[in-house]
Structure formats: structure tokens, C-alpha cells
């Protein structure tokens, strides 16, 4: 039978088996060609930027560009005694060349991250660069006695590695000490763990308020007749047609001391003086909940729309209290929508920048504010990338937890 099939040929004399194989290969190539633009789009707009972000959080190119000979000379240094004469000579040559090529700022800024004041130390040496030759080590130390201390040379050695954990450790208030061990930074320098805690706390409160307000709205959307439901859906989607900046500015107008809300409460006699409702945490909560509320309502609505009201009516007909029937029969069927909405709102909230920056005070700024600060003001790409990478890791962890819970619920449903 197989021999007979193998001997079959098409009209053009090509074996039928070979022709089928060619047709299948052509079909696969067409399929790949059809998805290639999408794959390329995802690669260029998603994978490549995120990969670059993560790489920049550990990239350490400054001293390799500004002080290449010094870095190479320190490669075999044991860090237990001052470097030898050739290392000092390499430093002098590098500084002279960096001054000519205007790359000294790279080294100064990077070393200043390691030890505050290193920039002025380098500038002082550049102004009094000794000539190359015998005795260059003593001449450099004579310019400033700090060049005779191991602390500063160890900082150069740490900053001279091609990859570094400096930024990621600093983003969680840790550092590598002179002995090479990881330790916490002093209390007066610690800031980012508090910022991350504040970010997650604000995102959690916003998510809970969005759930509390969005659940009844989604329920109404799913249970009202089509006419009122469509009108309510338009009101839910209306914020998407307005600029985020405009919506945030509108809340500043509404909540400020001379705004509409304070004016109305004073006019009704509810308060005697205007309340501070903006440029604080309250303003951040109000504005963020308003902006993110549709992202909670829509997942809930999509799930609730598929729940038949007959289940609750059946429970009530069997003697259950209406509220108990709703809580025990209806609500458990909305868990998928609740989980999806909470996940979406929380992830969007931890990365918010414009709203907290405009309506919040100094103690209400989230991680995104510091990412923008390091990107736009201090041009510290490493620190900005490290903070962004940690936010990305937090997002991936949330997705993993959600996926685990979703798969567990699916397995229980099958049983």
C-alpha cells in the first residue's frame, strides 16, 4: 500500500508525496509571512524597549569610556593595598585625554554616585595634573591626600566593571560596601523602599475604592434594560474621550480651597473654612479613582453580562433572603471579573505619573515621579531604569499570581 502511494505521480510527473510536502511547506511560509509584521511590531515596540530598559539598569559604561586605561590597570588589583605606580600613571593619562575629549563629566558623575565629593576630587587633580614619569604616584597623592586612601580606589574599581548591581541595589536602599558585601544604606539616605511602599499602598486603596464604586455600576449595566444601560455605558466611557491632563486639572479646579466643592459646603453651612482637598493624599485618591474607574467597570460588566438572573431568582424561590442569594449565588460568579478589574487597575495605578504629580503633595509622589526625575532632570538613566525594572518585576509577579489563581479556579471548576 505504501509503495503504491509512493509511486503515485501528479499530471506534471512530480511524485504526489513530494508535491504535497511542497504545498505544506508553502502554506507554512505563507502563515509565517502573515504573522511576521505582528511579530516585528511586538519586537520593536515592546520586547526591545523593555529589554533595553532592563539592560540599562545594570549597564556601567562611564568609566570604560572616560578612564579606559585606569580600568584596565586595576583589573588585577587585590584591593588590599594602594595600586602600583602604573595605575597612577594610567589615571593621569586618562584624565589628560578625558579633558581633551570632554568626557571627564562621565567619570565624575559616575564616581560621585559611589562617594559624594568624588567629582571635586577629580577636578582638583585635573587642574594640577603632574607630568608622566617616575614619581607620578607621590605627585598625585601630593595633590590631594585622598588619593592615598583605599576607599577612593576601591570606588573606581567598583565603578569600572562593565555590569553593575549599583542601581538595582540603590533602588531598594542597599549598596555594596568596601568589603564587597551587600548592606543597607544609612537611614538618612534610605528613600526608595518607602516610595515603593507608598506606591503599592496608594494603588491598593485606589483599587479597593474602584471596586467598591465600580461593582454596583457594572451590576446596573448588566441588569438594566438596553436603553438605560446604553446611556449609562456612554457615561462610563465618556472619560476616555477626554484628555487625562484635562481630567486631572478639572479635579484641581473642583477641590482647591476656592473651588466648587469647598464653596458649596461653605454655602450649605457644612464647614466654616475651606478644607485642604487637593495637593495631598485625598486629592490623589479622588482623581485616580475617577480616572481608573472605567477599567474596573468594563471587566466586571463583561463577566456579569453572562450571568443569568435565573440563578438568584431560583435561590430566592427556595427560601433564601434576597441579599443572601445575591451574596452566595451571584457574587461568586463575578470573581473572574473582580480579579481582572483589580489586577488591571492596580497595575495601571502603580505606574501613574501625571495625576499624583499634579494633585499630590511632596509626600504623595509615587515611583513614576522618580523615574521621570532621573530621566529628565539628573539624566541618571541607570537609576531610572532600575526603578522601572523593579516596577516591571512587580507587574510580572502580579500577573503570575493572577495566572496561578485563575488556573486553580479553572481546575476546581472542572472537578
UniProtKB/TrEMBL annotation:
It is a multi-pass membrane protein. The chain crosses the membrane at residues 31-55, 200-222, 252-272, 284-304, 310-331, 338-359, 379-402. GO terms for cellular component: plasma membrane. InterPro entries: MetI-like, MetI-like_sf. GO terms for biological process: transmembrane transport. It is found in: Cell membrane. This is Putative spermidine/putrescine transport system permease protein. The lineage of its organism: Bacteria, Pseudomonadati, Pseudomonadota, Gammaproteobacteria, Candidatus Competibacteraceae.
Amino acid at each position: 500500500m505504501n509503495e503504491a502511494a509512493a509511486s503515485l505521480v501528479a499530471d506534471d510527473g512530480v511524485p504526489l508525496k513530494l508535491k504535497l510536502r511542497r504545498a505544506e511547506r508553502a502554506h507554512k511560509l505563507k502563515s509565517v509571512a502573515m504573522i511576521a509584521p505582528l511579530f516585528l511590531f511586538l519586537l520593536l515596540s515592546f520586547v526591545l524597549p523593555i529589554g533595553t530598559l532592563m539592560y540599562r539598569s545594570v549597564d556601567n559604561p562611564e568609566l570604560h569610556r572616560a578612564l579606559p586605561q585606569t580600568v584596565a590597570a586595576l583589573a588585577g588589583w587585590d584591593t588590599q593595598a594602594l595600586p602600583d605606580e602604573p595605575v597612577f600613571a594610567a589615571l593621569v593619562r586618562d584624565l589628560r585625554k578625558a579633558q581633551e575629549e570632554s568626557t571627564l563629566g562621565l567619570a565624575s558623575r559616575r564616581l560621585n554616585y559611589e562617594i559624594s565629593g568624588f567629582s571635586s576630587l577629580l577636578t582638583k587633580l585635573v587642574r594640577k595634573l603632574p607630568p608622566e614619569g617616575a614619581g607620578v604616584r607621590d605627585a598625585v597623592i601630593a595633590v590631594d591626600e585622598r588619593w592615598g586612601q583605599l576607599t577612593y580606589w576601591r570606588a573606581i574599581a567598583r565603578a569600572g566593571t562593565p555590569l553593575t548591581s549599583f542601581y538595582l541595589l540603590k533602588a531598594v536602599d542597599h549598596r555594596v560596601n568596601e568589603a564587597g558585601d551587600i548592606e543597607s544604606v544609612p537611614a538618612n539616605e534610605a528613600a526608595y523602599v518607602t516610595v515603593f511602599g507608598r506606591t503599592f499602598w496608594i494603588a491598593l486603596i485606589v483599587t479597593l475604592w474602584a471596586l467598591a464604586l465600580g461593582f454596583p455600576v457594572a451590576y446596573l449595566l448588566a441588569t438594566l434594560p438596553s436603553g438605560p444601560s446604553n446611556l449609562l455605558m456612554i457615561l462610563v466611557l465618556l472619560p476616555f474621550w477626554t484628555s487625562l491632563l484635562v481630567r486631572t486639572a478639572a479635579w484641581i479646579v473642583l477641590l482647591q480651597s476656592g473651588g466648587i466643592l469647598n464653596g458649596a459646603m461653605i454655602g450649605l453651612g457644612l464647614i466654616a473654612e475651606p478644607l485642604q482637598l487637593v495637593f495631598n493624599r485625598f486629592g490623589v485618591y479622588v482623581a485616580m479613582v475617577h480616572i481608573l474607574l472605567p477599567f474596573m467597570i468594563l471587566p466586571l460588566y463583561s463577566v456579569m453580562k453572562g450571568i443569568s438572573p435565573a440563578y438568584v431568582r431560583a435561590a430566592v424561590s427556595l427560601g433564601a433572603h434576597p441579599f443572601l442569594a445575591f451574596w452566595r449565588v451571584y457574587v461568586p460568579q463575578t470573581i473572574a471579573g473582580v480579579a481582572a478589574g483589580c489586577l488591571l487597575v492596580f497595575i495601571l495605578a502603580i505606574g501613574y505619573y501625571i495625576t499624583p504629580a499634579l494633585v499630590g503633595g511632596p509626600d504623595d509622589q509615587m515611583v513614576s515621579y522618580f523615574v521621570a526625575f532621573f530621566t529628565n532632570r539628573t539624566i541618571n538613566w541607570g537609576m531610572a531604569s532600575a526603578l522601572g525594572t523593579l516596577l516591571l518585576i512587580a507587574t510580572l509577579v502580579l500577573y503570575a499570581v493572577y495566572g496561578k489563581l485563575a488556573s486553580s479556579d479553572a481546575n476546581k471548576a472542572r472537578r
